[in-house]
Design a protein that fits this description.
- The structure holds three protein chains of three kinds.
- By secondary structure, chain A is α/β, with parallel strands linked by helices.
- Chain A has two domains: about 230 residues, 3-Layer(aba) Sandwich (Rossmann fold); about 110 residues, 3-Layer(aba) Sandwich (Rossmann fold).
- Chain A is built from twelve helices and 15 strands.
- In chain A, helix 1 packs parallel to helix 6 and helix 3 runs parallel beside helix 4.
- In chain A, about 55% of the residues are buried.
- Chain B has a single domain, classed as Pyruvate-ferredoxin Oxidoreductase, domain 3 (3-Layer(aba) Sandwich).
- Chain B contains six helices and six strands.
- Chain B has a six-stranded mixed beta sheet, sandwiched between helices.
- Chain B is globular.
- In chain B, helix 1 crosses helix 5.
- The termini of chain C are far apart.
- The radius of gyration of chain C is 17 Å and the shape is globular.
- Chain C is built from ten helices and nine strands.
- Chain C has a single domain, classed as Rossmann fold, CATH 3.40.50.
- The relative contact order of chain C is 0.15.
- The model of chain C has no long low-confidence stretch (mean pLDDT about 95).
- The chains are: A alpha/beta, B alpha/beta, C alpha/beta.
- Chains A and C meet through helix 3, helix 4 and strand 9 of A and strand 1, strand 2, helix 3 and helix 5 of C.
- Strand 9 of chain A pairs parallel with strand 2 of chain C.
């Protein structure tokens, strides 16, 4: 039975995490995600969990590493520059095969950038969240409700894979208030703790050890297993929203908050008689390759990539599936300047009525 | 039908609180709403702005370029956002603080001394509620009754006089707003 | 009759530490203290990076291996997630006093209820003998070939002295492992720290002065003398803080 509330994205994410079984959070203040740690600082103790304000992002992700090793559902959140600092720890989580949730409420970059929303961390999230060539599932919800639903089930994925899960939203979704249906509190019993965890030794006759360092053949073997897992994700875990593609002559591709602005424009242009459709990747990794690869390119005249970053970052992933069968256009705003309805509408219209490069 | 509102001014003028109250009230009336604050690095006295979108249908984009109703609480905000209201929309100004002449003739301009009205009622802090009253009077976006329930919830931990004053502020606003309906 | 035997937390395998290295002795003392407290099944070794990290090969109890300098952060998460376990970090001086300075100071300042075993051999052993934050003035290393010069590299960090200035830590002590007395005292100190942790008292910190025959370019015996004449005068053994003393 759900519970309807009007909530800020960041707070809703925090509450969804608690209801999804999160019992440990460590993080460091950074705008625009502060409501997540602020909320969890009082909420986790209410449910017997623990909150630590770390001395840095680096320390915080390693606190998560320690708690996750005990089988506790653990998470951290940050915003772009802080995620760079967590890169070390995220790589170690992947190496040590530890489940955890990491949320990036992203802002303008590079560098300290701006504190306003941006989607400039796509490449970091999907290609290299840290050194060593690993991947995580990367979810990019576009409403507070979808963020809640994804966060709520993220440990199911993380524990299934023994791998961290990454949720990428921008500061806009983190700070917007929307209606949300909160899911029920999951009961996590001590006997549900994963078998590999270090929570208890008694009654276990084998040595428990968790390590991010291995001898070469073992490391190679683990990397091969990870490779298989990523392939499996492509088959089973891709999530995508496809909107009005059946007769579309132009296809807009956008994720997260940008996809909402793009969808509004698609609907408006449809009303004006233009044959437009939308593909919204919900998982950025694995990327919804088939949705783009299998478009009917005898009909589709162009793809328009809309992102809240300049230059567009998802474009390479799109082009790899289009394979030159139609032109790919891009439009975006960057640095913390937001996309808006009119801007996106005009940009798409310019492409479909000719004239845009 | 989708209706957008931008509240702007400086920190401490109740900008964010007005936006949240309006959005909450819309939700209580089984409409859909989004509230998006725009935050700056300053904790006090910086510019404050929020965007509220209200609709009978699920809201797709919460990021209109130009809003239908622009509420401006001071001159700096007017200089910055004055053009952000669409043609045919409502530009609601706090004339207690904005003395500048409005250059636009393609919008309905409502200039009301909301600070003075609130002061007269007892506290300048109620200026934002006068604004909400004007909006209700002029647009019917939410009903007075449901908004009063939101106010009751909002001020339930305060002295009853505070709620009374805010309801008075609301009604003074509604009177003004009605003239522009 | 007491039987001297290998503690169960040490793997039944030859040590890969260099001949004469006191790391193996330090590890053994920790393992003995754990065994004597009946905590072999309950202990969790949070292993760091450096020669201390070789414990992943020799430690047969549960362990969690962590990133360089981050052991106190990982231990914070682990201990809070499961307060019943006896949690300790085992860290070298590069790990603890350079890259992990923020983590050790903050964990100590929060009064986290775990124990830190800090092996101080004044060098980066595993990477080949570079200058450490604890390298003595004039002591040679591969990155200070004429000896550590305080004009450009500052002075060796005395971690016990620094940590004992904080309010939260409960027991802070330094022992030198180059003499039988030092070894016996160290064992007592380690046990005391573990007992305090098991009683939920808070943060405990044990510094063990060790050596590095390989990178100091000395015989093991020469290192013990060097410790007497150089290390111990700068890093004075002793109990720097003990909140139990007047309790």
């Amino acid at each position: 039975m759900g519970e309807k509330r009007f909530m800020k994205g960041n707070e809703a994410i925090a509450e969804a995490a608690v209801r999804g079984g999160c019992r440990f959070f460590a993080g460091y203040p950074i705008t625009p995600q502060n409501e997540i740690p602020e909320y969890l600082s009082w909420r986790l103790p209410e449910v017997g969990g623990d909150f630590v304000q770390g001395e840095s992002e680096v320390a915080s992700i390693n606190m998560v590493y320690g708690a996750a090793a005990m089988g506790t559902r653990a998470m951290t959140s940050s915003s772009s520059p802080g995620i760079s600092l967590k890169a070390e720890g995220i790589s170690y989580l992947a190496a040590a095969m530890l489940p955890a949730l990491i949320v990036n409420v992203s802002r303008g970059g590079p560098g300290l950038g701006s504190i306003q929303p941006a989607q400039s961390d796509y490449l970091q999230a999907t290609k290299a969240l840290g050194h060593g060539g690993f991947h995580t599932l990367v979810f990019a919800p576009n409403t507070v409700q979808e963020a809640v639903d994804i966060v709520y089930e993220s440990w199911e994925y993380a524990e299934r894979d023994r791998n961290p899960v990454f949720v990428l939203i921008d500061g806009c979704l983190g700070n917007i208030m929307e209606e949300v249906d909160l899911p029920e509190m999951k009961e996590i019993k001590p006997e549900d703790l994963p078998e590999w965890c270090l929570s208890r030794r008694n009654g276990r006759d084998w040595q428990g050890n968790i390590t991010p360092i291995y001898t070469e053949p073992i490391l190679e073997g683990l990397n091969m297993m990870a490779g298989e897992m990523y392939k499996q994700w492509e088959e089973e875990d891709v999530r995508v929203e496809e909107f009005m593609l059946d007769d579309a002559e132009y296809v807009v591709i956008a994720y997260g908050m940008a996809s909402r602005v793009a969808k509004e424009a698609v609907i408006k242009l449809r009303e004006e008689g233009h044959k437009l459709g939308l593909i919204r990747p919900i998982t950025l990794y694995p990327f919804p390759k088939n949705s783009i690869r299998n478009l009917d390119y005898s009909r589709v005249k162009g793809i328009i990539d809309i992102e809240m970053t300049i230059p567009a970052q998802m474009r390479d992933d799109i082009e790899l599936q289009v394979m030159g069968r139609c032109p790919v256009y891009e439009y975006g705003r960057s640095g913390g300047c937001l996309l808006d309805d009119d801007g996106v509408y005009e940009a798409i219209k310019e492409v479909i009525t000719g004239g845009a490069e | 039908m989708k209706e957008s509102f931008v509240f702007s001014g400086s920190g401490g003028q109740g900008i964010m609180s007005a936006g949240i109250t309006l959005a909450h009230t819309a939700i209580d009336m089984n409409k859909h709403a989004t509230y998006l604050p725009e935050y700056g690095p300053e904790q006090r006295g910086g510019s404050a702005k929020c965007t509220v979108v209200i609709s009978g249908d699920k809201i797709i984009s919460p990021l209109p370029k130009q809003c239908d109703n622009l509420i401006v609480m001071n001159e700096q905000a007017y200089a910055k956002f004055g053009e952000d209201v669409r043609k045919g929309g409502i530009l609601l100004l706090n004339s207690s603080r904005i003395k500048e002449e409005v250059k636009r003739d393609d919008v309905t301009v409502i200039a009301a001394p909301v600070d003075d009205i609130a002061l007269e009622l007892g506290n300048v802090k109620a200026a934002n509620i006068v604004l909400l009253g004007i909006l209700i009077g002029a647009t019917d976006i939410v009903s007075r009754e449901v908004l009063v329930l939101s106010l009751e919830e909002k001020f339930k931990s305060k002295k009853p006089e505070i709620l009374d004053m805010n309801i008075k502020a609301l009604d003074r606003g509604i009177e003004i707003g009605k003239k522009y309906k | 009759m007491a039987v001297y035997k290998r503690p169960t937390s040490i793997a039944d395998a030859p040590s890969g530490y260099c001949p004469g290295c006191l790391h193996s002795l330090a590890t053994k003392l920790v393992a003995q203290a754990i065994e004597e407290l009946g905590q072999a099944d309950n202990s969790l070794n949070i292993i760091s990076v450096g020669c201390s990290g070789l414990n992943i090969l020799y430690w047969s109890g549960d362990f969690l291996s962590t990133a360089h300098g981050r052991a106190p952060a990982a231990a914070t998460g682990a201990k809070r997630a499961n307060p019943e376990r006896l949690v300790f970090t085992y860290q070298g001086d590069g790990d603890l006093a350079a890259i992990g300075l923020a983590e050790i100071m903050s964990a100590a300042n929060r009064g986290e209820n775990f124990t830190v075993i800090f092996a101080n051999n004044q060098t980066y052993g595993m990477t080949g003998g570079q200058m450490a934050p604890t390298t003595l003035i004039g002591q040679k290393s591969t990155t200070s070939i004429y000896g550590r010069d305080p004009k450009t590299t500052g002075y060796p960090l005395r971690m016990c002295e620094i940590i004992s200035t904080l309010e939260a830590p409960r027991f802070v002590a330094r022992y030198a492992l180059n003499s039988p007395k030092g070894i016996m005292d160290a064992k007592k100190g380690i046990k005391k720290a573990f007992e305090m942790q098991l009683a939920g008292k808070g943060f405990t910190f044990i510094e063990l002065l060790t050596n590095c025959p390989t990178n100091w370019h000395m015989t093991p015996l020469q290192t013990l003398d060097y410790m007497n004449t150089n290390t111990i005068p700068y890093f004075k053994p002793g109990i720097y803080k003990d909140t139990e003393e007047n309790a």
